Amino acid sequence: MQFEQRMYARLKFLELMGELCETAFEDFFHRLMCARYPDFLDVRTHGSLGDQGADGLSLYGHKLYACYAPQTVDVPAVKRKLASDLAKALDKRSGQFDTFVFVHNDRRGMHPQIATLLSETDAGHPELAFEQMGNRRLWYECMRLDQELAEEVLGCQIPVQPVVHGVGMDDLASLLQHLRDKRVAADPLMTLPDVDPRKLDFNRLRDEAREGLVRGMRHSHLVDAFYEGSMRTVEHDEVAQGFRLYYEQVRQEWADPEDVLWQLEMYVLGNGNQQPRVQRAAWVILAHFFERCDIFEAPPPGWVGAGVGASA
What we know:
- It contains 13 helices and five strands.
- The chain is of the alpha/beta class.
């Protein structure tokens, strides 16, 4: 899909996430996972058998998926359902899974008490791995679909039309605001961190693109500060995954690394005009995920380039 089509699909996805709950959410989850994975089994209830603790099974991945999509979050009710689903799965589906995936519809992220509940459940079952699948991970699965399958999953056509929202805007809005506020307080004369120029050289980044990333690295520690804490760490990893998936897509469509970087900038900001302070904050974000190697490629061990420097 083209950039504008992905933007349109993102908006339709967010609309759906604001509406879907209970069985409607489960139906959407089944459509998405069946479109993504040929080994996914969309388990339905059947009479007195029920669903035996599973809303979906991955044959090859040995994962069991359980959906929790109430209209409003009721922590005691979720705790009872989680315990019931896990007990049924362990009893009825022994040997069919080694990972239990908690799938939920909370657009704001995971409720802190439910996060604690999952952590405690994980500690009580060392033989199993536990994962969560919420708004961000569901969207990342959508991003991997081709247009025809995405239209089937989202239930709408995806036309080409101008859209000024960035794919990552919802996830990154608070980070952008944080950087806008904190950058002005940072020491403009502070020493730049040591930057391995080989990665810049290896990816053929030069001139303004190279300089923009290096300037962004001056403040990239602010991104780490924003994501400090156990709950923020999970969010940090999910946002990084979004960058990796989007980078993988756009590098297949654009050969020039500067074009790829431009697409990534639109991922953060959209394709509308932004204030200079917001644009500078976006480059701090790009520099951060560049340093983490979530975007662009790390040179192989022992690689020595000619060095493109700041100009060609």
